[in-house]
């Protein structure tokens, strides 16, 4: 079993092994819920519509929290990649 798995919510469809390029990276490693989402909220405001934010976290709650946050804010969760207990979440800022 690979430690490098891509978890996509069922409503997102399948992206295969395509690489997602982030415009900005937010390091939330070592922070627990709700801090990764709070920092994401602040950081995404700095981005232009359509830009992609990569959030680094080692909080397992990020998987459900970020999907719920995206659904409630209109931003798009492109992918969640898990590797060795750490997560890379790719969020695309909604169009204005």
Structure description:
With 96 residues, the chain is an alpha+beta fold. It has a single domain, classed as Translation Initiation Factor IF3 (2-Layer Sandwich). 23% of the residues lie in helices and 30% in strands. The chain has helices spanning 35-44, 62-73; strands at residues 4-7, 24-27, 52-57, 76-83, 86-92. It has a 5-stranded mixed β-sheet with strand order 1-4-5-3-2, covered by helices on one side. The chain is globular, with a radius of gyration of 12 Å. The N and C termini lie far apart (41 Å). Residues 10-17 have low confidence and may be disordered.
List the uncertain runs: 10-17
**Shape type:** globular
CATH architecture classification name: 2-Layer Sandwich
The helicity comes to: 10-25%
Secondary-structure blueprint:
Layout: E1 4-7, E2 24-27, H1 35-44, E3 52-57, H2 62-73, E4 76-83, E5 86-92
Parallel strand pairs: 2-3
Antiparallel strand pairs: 1-4, 3-5, 4-5
């Amino acid at each position: 079993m690979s430690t490098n798995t891509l978890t996509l919510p069922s409503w997102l469809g399948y992206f295969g092994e395509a690489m997602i390029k982030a415009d900005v990276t937010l390091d939330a490693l070592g922070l627990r819920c709700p801090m990764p989402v709070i920092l994401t909220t602040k950081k995404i405001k700095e981005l232009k519509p359509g830009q992609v934010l990569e959030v680094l976290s080692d909080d397992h709650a990020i998987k459900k929290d970020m999907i719920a946050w995206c659904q409630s804010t209109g931003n798009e969760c492109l992918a969640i990649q898990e590797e060795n207990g750490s997560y890379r979440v790719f969020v695309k800022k909604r169009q204005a």
